Amino acid sequence: MKGRAGLPNPGLTVWVLRWVALYTRGLPEGAARDRADEIASDLFEHNAAAVAADQSKRATTLSILTRALTGMGADVLWRERQLQQEHRRQLSVASPALRTRYSRVARGAVALGAAVAILTLASTIRVLTNVPTAWGVSSVTGQIAVTVGVLLALLALLRSSSRILGALFFAALSLPLCLAVAQNTMYISLTLAQVMQSALAPFAATSYYLAFAVLFIPAYLLIAVFMTIAVRLRALHRRIRLEAYTPAHETTMLY
Amino acid sequence: MEYSILSAVVELSASRTDPYGYTIAASIARADEGRGLTAHGTLYKALGRLVESGMLVAAWEAPETAEGEGRPRRRLYEVTAAGAKALQTHANEKLSASTAFTPVPGRLATS
Asked: Which of A44, A127, B28, B65 is least surrounded by CB atoms within 10 angstroms?
C-alpha cells in the first residue's frame, strides 16, 4: 500500500493503511476489503479537500492523525464484533455434533473460569478485610493484580472471539494466583492455613523445595486443564471453520 | 452519532453531493461547528451499524468512474425509508423535548 504521489501526507497515508491492515487481519475477506477501501478513499478525499482548501500540510496531518488515533478504540471493537459475527455464522453452518461438542467445551471452560474467578475474588475480599490497615495496600498488591488478571481472563473466556486467549490467560495466571493465595492464606482462613501447614510438614522435613513443589500442585492442575481447554477449543474452531468453507458433501470425507 | 450520520446523508443527497465517508464526516463537522471531523473508527463503525440495521444502504461506485477521475472508488450511502422514518421520529422527539422545557415568561414560581 503506497502513499499516492502528489498528496501532502503519503507517509501518514501508509501508516494509517498499515493500521487498517493490522486490525482487519484474519477477518472475512469482504469485510476487510471494504474497510480498507473505504479508509483509502477517505484519506484520499481528506487530502484532496485539504489541498483544495489550501490548508497547511501540518494542519492536514494533524487532522488525519487525530481521526486515526481517536478512532482506534472503535476499530478494535469493530474487529471484535466482526470476529464474533463470523464465528456465529460458521457455528450456525457446522454439523449438530460439532456444535454440541463446541458448546460443551465452551460451557465447561466458562464454568471453570467463573469458579476460579469467584474463589479468587472471595479470597481477595477476605485478605483485604483481614490484613491490618497499617500495612497499607502495597502488602496485598500481588493479590489484587492477580484478581484483576483473573477477572479479565474470565471476560475473555466469556467472548467467543477471545475464548482461547481467555483459557491461555487462566493457564498463565495459575502460578501467580497460587503464589498469592499461599502468601496470604492466613488472612483468608486460619483453618486452611493450619491444614496446609500440617499437610506440607512431612515434605518440608525432607526438602524445602519439595514442599514448594507440592504447594503448587493446584496450579499445575489448573495449567493442565486450561491448556487442554485452549487446545481443544482451537481444534474445534479449526474444524468449524473447515466445515464452513467446505461443501457439505466433502465434509464427510474430511474425518 | 447515528442520527448525525442519517441527517448528513439526507442533506448531502438533497444538495446533490455524493454521500460517502469523507463528505459525511465533513457534513457532520459543518453542522456541529467547533467539532472536528469524526474519527475513522467511529464513523465507519456507525455507518456499518446503520447499514446492518437497514437505515442505510451502501453501494460501491463503478470502478470505471473512480479510475476515470484518478481516485479510489467511493462507497456511496443512501437513506432507506426506515432510516428516514427514524430520523423524523428523532427530530419530532427533539422538538417536543425542547418545547416542553421552554420557560414561559411570567409563569415562573416565585415562592
From this structure: B65
